[in-house]
Amino acid sequence: MDELNTLPFVRDGELRHLDALPYMIRKGCFKNGTPEGLQRALEWVGTFPAIEAVPPQAIDRVPSLSGIDQGERFLIGSALEIVDSSILTGDKRCVTAIGGFSPELQVALTGKILCLETAICAIVDQYDFSHVAGKVRPGLSCDRVIRSIFGSTAPASRASVCEGLASYIGSITSSPGGVVLIPWEALL
Predict the structure, then answer these.
(1) I need a labelling partner for 97 at 20 to 30 A (CA). Which of 16, 62, 71, 172 fits?
(2) Whole domain around residue 69: which residue ranges?
(3) What angle do CA 81, 177, 182 make, to 5 degrees?
(4) Closest C-alpha to 61, from 122, 115, 102
C-alpha cells in the first residue's frame, strides 16, 4: 500500500473508506484473503477515516443496476458529490455496469475511477519488480485476475505480468463503462 500512496492522484490525507469496511474485513466477508493479509488490510484501513455521510439524493442519482451493490452506489454517489474524489476498485462488473448510466453521469465520473490493475501496472512501472511481486504474491488468493497475471503456480516474469496487466486493462477499458477510468499513463 505504500506504493499506492505515491501515485499522483492519491493523497494520503484524503483517503477514505466505506464505514462498514473494517467490520466486513473482521467478519470474514473477504473469504479468499489470508489471515495475515486481512490483518494488514485492516491495519491500513484503520489509518484513514470513513467517508462522511453524503446527502441521500447523491446516492439516489446512481441507478440500481446489476453489477453495482449498495456500497458501490454509496461510493459513486460520494464521488459525484465530492468534486476532487475518486474511487479505486477491483470490480470489473461495477465498471461495466457504469456503461448503463446516463451520458451525464458517465461524464461526471470520467477520470474518477481507477481499477486496481491499472494502479498495479503503474506501480510495476515505477518500482523494482521483485519488490512489487514480493508484496503482491502473498495476497494472490484474494483476486482471481491478479493471481492469473502474477502466476498461480509459478511466479510470472515482469514481461509476462506487464503483458497480462495491459491485456486486462485493455479489456476493462473497452467495456461499456471503461470510458470513465483513469488511464494508467496518467499515473506515471
Answers:
(1) 16
(2) 4-187
(3) 65
(4) 102
Compute the distance between CA of residue 83 and CA of residue 161 in angstroms, rounded to an integer.
Answer: 34
Task: Give the number of other CB atoms < 10 A from CB of residue 177.
Answer: 23
Q: How many residues does the chain have?
A: 188
User: Residue 154 corresponds to which cell in the numbers above?
Assistant: 509459478
114, containing H or E segment: strand 113-115
φ, ψ at 171 (rounded to 5°): -65, -50
pLDDT digits (tens, 9 = 90+) for 155-177: 999 999 999 999 999 999 999 99
Closest residue by Cα to residue 177 from 93, 69, 121 = 93
Compute the distance between CA of residue 7 and CA of residue 120 in angstroms, rounded to an integer. Answer: 10
Question: What is the value of pTM for the model shown?
Answer: 0.85
Number of domains in the chain: 1
